[in-house]
Amino acid sequence: MLVTKLLGLIILIADVLGDVHPVIRDRRQVDACSERPTYGERRRCAVKDGVKQLLQKRNEDWSWGERVEAEAIIALHLAKYKVFKKTKASLYISVKQMNIDLLSAVSKDNSLTSKEWGRGKLAYYVLGVKATCQDPRDFYGHDLIDKLKNHLIVSSSYLDSNKFDYSLILIALCKAGEPIDTHNLNDISTTPGYYTFGVDEASVVYMAYHCVGNPTYKKAEDAAFNFILQAKNENGTFGNEYSTALAVQAIFASGKRTLRRQTRTGIDYMVDSIGRNKDPFTSLLLSVLPAIARKSLLDIGSWQCTTPEQGTTTPSTPTFLVAITVFNNITAIDYDRTWSATLRQGQTLYDALVNLNNTDSTFSFKSETATWGQYITSINDMTASTDDRQYWQILGTDGSPLQYGASQTFPSQGDKYTFKFTIW
Ligand SMILES: *[C@@H]1O[C@H](CO)[C@@H](O)[C@H](O)[C@H]1NC(C)=O
Ligand SMILES: *[C@@H]1O[C@H](CO)[C@@H](O)[C@H](O)[C@H]1NC(C)=O
Ligand SMILES: *[C@@H]1O[C@H](CO)[C@@H](O)[C@H](O)[C@H]1NC(C)=O
Fold it and tell me: Does ligand 3 have an atom closer than 6 angstroms to the CB of 422?
């Protein structure tokens, strides 16, 4: 510490005198990042300083605000911190802040389907949870994966017009190890080679396909990638800093080392844009840091969460009961029976049926996976039939039919649901 200070002093004096000893000059260039002689050095210095700037942008409560906690944690993860160690409290506190942000949102809206969260936001938080070695399936007892999948259904009309957010959700599910339905993979490129939001969209679409790696979609994957490469300007950028960052991420996600040179001038451009003299916005830092560090969203969580004490297990929430009534007065057998099903906070009504099926021999059901979620086909051997125009209608606590299916409904303590055998 003292030596560094002394050295700094010597450099200062030497600078003033205008006569720098060659050894000291070398030290200065490596240490201070003030003069960046080579491209590599310049790049590495920009990452280092960008991370510092990002950490300095935190508010008094150690957060960045406006629901960008996850994006900030992801940027730090990809640029520098492979693992967020608990021993580094001044950094780890921002992981906690991300958790608080998400928990606070869940406490207001358990399904997280509000406009703010029902788009790409939750995808970033799921990725942030992954990046910090936490389990998105059990985040303080909440199943974030169920909620995210739910978005594919309840936000489908929005996502159909925004393949950027759609692909982001698929990337988050893919990174969480979830299988992706083929209809979702079809959806993100209805016209391969056409992208409403240009390079930005092509980049995330490409990363989604590349993450899933389904050979059936190789053509759509290649179309997106070629679109990115062709969008490169003569000056080496792919548009503004944000677009360039996404394109560069996609190129690194591809793992094609021969294309690295294609990113150099783009990276130079981003390095310039986050110079301290430019006082870059937080959003710009979040966007360009991973790309300058030559990483992509697909690198999230690819470093091992080594020992348990480095990861985080969040405490589970307690369980509660909901009432499930099965009612049928339209076939020969009249049926009216009620059970109490156990549920953890954040589980769906469908989970309640599964829990009941697993614990109570007097209850059984069957369901099919449809594009809009789980479709209940049969309860206690009373089977829905298209020919007889019979189906299981689900009524909520207030007696009116549910807006969405059982797998999109998040019950609360004391709710009552009726599965009513009905003719349409
Ligand atoms: C690079 O070229 C594009 C297209 O010619 C232009 O719009 C953009 O402003 C240029 N960017 C820089 C940083 O020179
Ligand atoms: C079935 O029960 C409903 C009340 O939930 C009633 O309105 C209806 O008339 C009954 N149908 C038959 C065929 O008994
Ligand atoms: C219900 O439980 C049985 C075993 O008791 C199992 O075979 C079946 O798959 C379960 N059904 C559902 C929908 O989970």
Answer: no
CA–centroid distance, 192 to ligand 3, in Å, is: 40
Q: Ligand 1 centre and the CA of 167: distance in Å?
A: 27
Is 329 a pocket residue for ligand 2 (Cβ < 6 Å)? yes
pLDDT in tens, the chain (424 residues): 444 454 444 444 444 343 434 444 444 444 556 665 788 899 999 999 999 999 999 998 899 988 999 999 999 999 999 988 888 999 999 999 999 999 999 999 888 888 888 889 999 999 999 999 999 999 998 999 999 999 998 888 999 999 999 999 999 999 999 999 999 999 998 777 889 999 999 999 999 999 999 999 999 999 999 999 999 999 999 999 999 999 999 999 999 999 999 999 999 999 999 999 999 999 999 999 999 999 999 999 887 776 554 445 666 667 888 999 999 999 888 899 999 898 887 789 999 999 999 888 999 999 998 877 889 999 999 999 888 899 999 999 999 999 888 998 999 888 999 999 999 8
**Which residues, including other chains, have CB under 8 Å from residue 349's CB and lie 6 or more apart?**
322, 394, 402, 406, 407, 409, 410, 411, 417
Ligand nearest 332 Cα, by number? 2
Q: Quote the pTM value.
A: 0.72
Ligand 2 lined by 306 (C-beta under 6 Å): no
Of 217, 150, 215, whose CA–CA distance to 190 is shortest?
A: 217
Phi/psi at 299 (5° precision): -85, -10
Q: Ligand 2 centre from 395 Cα, in Å?
A: 14
